[in-house]
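Example 3.
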Amino acid sequence: MEISQLGEFGLIDRLTEPFNTRVPSTVLGVGDDTAILSQDSKRETLVTTDLLLEGIHFDLMYCPLKHLGFKAVSVNVSDILAMNGRPEQIVVSIGVSKRFAVEDIEALYLGIHEACEVYGVDLVGGDTCSSLTGLTISITAIGSAEAGKAVRRSGAKVNDLICLSGNVGAAYMGLQLCEREKLAYDGTADFRPRFEGREYILQRQLRPYARLDVIEALRKAGIVPTSMIDVSDGVASELLHISKASGVGCRIFDKKIPIDYETSAMAEELNINVITAALNGGEDYELLFTVPLGMKDLVEKIEDVRLIGYITEESDGCHLVANDGNLIPLLAQGHHFKKDEA
Amino acid sequence: MEISQLGEFGLIDRLTEPFNTRVPSTVLGVGDDTAILSQDSKRETLVTTDLLLEGIHFDLMYCPLKHLGFKAVSVNVSDILAMNGRPEQIVVSIGVSKRFAVEDIEALYLGIHEACEVYGVDLVGGDTCSSLTGLTISITAIGSAEAGKAVRRSGAKVNDLICLSGNVGAAYMGLQLCEREKLAYDGTADFRPRFEGREYILQRQLRPYARLDVIEALRKAGIVPTSMIDVSDGVASELLHISKASGVGCRIFDKKIPIDYETSAMAEELNINVITAALNGGEDYELLFTVPLGMKDLVEKIEDVRLIGYITEESDGCHLVANDGNLIPLLAQGHHFKKDEA
């Protein structure tokens, strides 16, 4: 059977199905943003890992190695934050082909170092080896949460409000911009990519920031989300994860989806439906979470967080409410293993 | 600068040099078999990661995917054991090209599952994505030890005895055998590789077992090594790590190096110096450790553990004592990033 017949999530389900957990320190295994481990009664350890492969997750034609290092850490830190956890350590493995000089790998680690500073995490280990082709980066992040306080995908309740940090679709449109300029590149020394006025979406694609600021703001406001996930595969896909794990449905409103001006302008220029980009684009690394209805006033005061919808009964399904009032079913799209690229 | 000018260890030193640790839960960062993290006063968390790349660490011409899955877990578990820790969880990331069917990846996970059963660890997370070329496997293992009881590389003392589990050089000779048969393969359906009587070295290469049994035997006997490391890059390289980290020298005896009959026979057949294979071959995943002189009687009773030498003053250097009494300096050879393949 070809992997493309199953897709990313189908393959993961199939592969992990025979595995049961039995180690006493395993609190939660496969299926959320991170695993939860416990050594004592006060703190829990969170673990998450991501693999970044050249040609799949990044293109060194337009992705500077320093930014890539920063991004690789952000992607993992984002998963720890999505459990309402505190990121603490990372381990980094890289596979490097002969085409890279020591200076290239130093640039990558400069970005990793910057991210460690920004997120306050320690690099505590890793593995470095040669590869036959291209660059491979594998990072595992470790964090912690108070025992029982990690926020899972499974806690959303009917009538909860759906909240989203920042804006979405920007990273995807940044990627489209990079791809356009890559095609336009004519090999000449004086080629100047048309990036003016598009700095924000470029930064969102090349050097995303995991929303440590939002987690800190929620903590200060005393808000503990009922469920949370980070937006790596697109809002639609993540909402379906929360709904499935929580046994609920959801409605989000077209006109409430936060979209930056640059994202809209780029989408228009490239003739891409901006709502599709915003809901299915991926790599936003924003936080999507639910809070009880009674927290509406409190959560509305959090900077850079918007209410985009609410949780319904499971039988109501998961829908986008279009501007004309029509209900459009939300569809999943695994970003890292799309059926057409598997 | 080309990476080959630095070698694996030189590159790691250079890349990790700018990183300091400051997170309170970080007890030990880069530089040992695992990192040590602490959330409370009773237990410490151990973390280690390894990256396995097709064409570098394995060749699917002769490495069955099921065995590869088992090996990938063993390699990581071995690092946890080398800290005298208890392996508890793993996270597994894979990158898979179109050439692989679902059944191939299931075979890989069958081996991972078997290893989880053998070592008593839980699979708790991971990442699955497509790759452009070949198979990439990244595993991070998590374990635990009593607070302050993890055995580091740095604790060897002058006059300590140097102990080695099992035998060495077998995995390397198994690899040479596989490579010979790969060259001999003529593409015909009735090709039969000449593996008879070489099952042991084949197994050591293709499906290594991390020495959980030795750690359990040491625990039962009440022996806590003063220093320990697992043999992944060869006994010589690992002894140099222990010596450097502990600020000591060492002497090991040519005639005491445990070598299996199949290893010797294969080395003779292929005209390879068996002591070189035993000391620099790599991938043995045996445990190399030191104990105080006073534990000689106790450690000699542990099954499948041999005394191969002793720790000296740092100024005495690190030497192999040849059968004729000559002292031969031990040389490091990074197995995964040899200068000629970097």
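The first strand of chain A starts at residue 26 and ends at 28. The radius of gyration of chain A is 20 Å.
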